[in-house]
Write a structure and sequence with these properties.
With 108 residues, the protein is an all-alpha fold. The chain has seven helices and no strands.
Length: 108
């Protein structure tokens, strides 16, 4: 657990030093998703997406956080938004993955 706490401290420091960069917010949010800290993940990832509305990885992770929290509509909306990003429109593998997630979310 110490390594995770060290990573959390590092990512929080990144956010503190570079608040206008989405990368620190994304990294912190991904850590929270990995730890199933859904509400904190949504806040951090929401900040990343606000700073860069086309950051498809952050939008996908935001959908994952909503799904983890049991918010199917929020998850679907985020994943559909990720599909609409330039990366989401170009990457066939990402498209297939997100379309599958959108179909599967109703099974949970």
């Amino acid at each position: 657990m110490r390594a995770v706490n060290d990573r959390e401290a590092l990512f929080k420091e990144m956010v503190s030093q570079f608040p206008d960069s989405p990368m620190g917010h994304f990294s912190l949010g991904r850590l929270y998703v990995d730890e199933k800290r859904w509400a904190e993940a949504i806040i951090a990832l929401g900040a990343a997406v606000k700073l860069d509305p086309h950051y498809s990885a952050a939008i996908v992770a935001l959908g994952d956080a909503h799904a983890g929290q049991g918010d199917k509509d929020g998850a679907k909306a985020a994943w559909q938004r990720a599909l609409a990003t330039p990366h989401g429109q170009r990457d066939a593998s990402l498209q297939a993955d997100l379309e599958q997630r959108i179909r599967d979310i109703d099974d949970f």
